[in-house]
Automatic annotation (TrEMBL):
GO CC, alphabetical: DASH complex; microtubule; mitotic spindle
Protein name: DASH complex subunit DUO1
Region annotated Disordered, chain positions: 75-119
Compartments where located: Chromosome, Centromere, Kinetochore; Cytoplasm, Cytoskeleton, Spindle; Nucleus
Protein species of origin: Neohortaea acidophila
């Protein structure tokens, strides 16, 4: 009788072990599935970001093409070159004005010295 009870207890422990092994296997499978879901979500996120950039660029291009004031990329380049030239000329003009101011200040200082020396 005692032997039968021990065998029954052993059988129950084996059943519990099988259930625990099943739960462990299920958890492992769930972890693997979650990793797959995570990779899929990351890939979808990357694709969505790419698609968003494509749509944004498409919208920009469409606005540019439909703009009646736009005369093409060649005109844009020419406009940028003109703007660079204008900036360079403006910088040169400012430098010349500054040089003229300095020369005027030097001339006034010399005149002031002459007046003091004459006095």
């Amino acid at each position: 009788a005692r032997d039968a009870r021990l065998r029954a207890e052993l059988e129950k422990v084996r059943q519990v072990n099988k259930v625990i092994e099943g739960v462990t296997a299920s958890l492992t499978k769930a972890r693997d599935n979650m990793e797959t879901v995570n990779r899929t979500v990351n890939n979808a996120s990357t694709l969505l970001a790419t698609w968003t950039r494509i749509l944004s660029q498409t919208e920009h291009n469409q606005k540019l093409i439909l703009n009646p004031n736009w005369h093409g990329a060649s005109q844009d380049i020419e406009d940028m070159e003109h703007e660079d030239l204008r900036r360079q000329q403006e910088a040169e003009r400012r430098a010349m004005e500054e040089q003229r101011r300095r020369e005027d200040a030097e001339r006034r200082a010399e005149e002031e010295e002459r007046r003091k020396a004459a006095a």
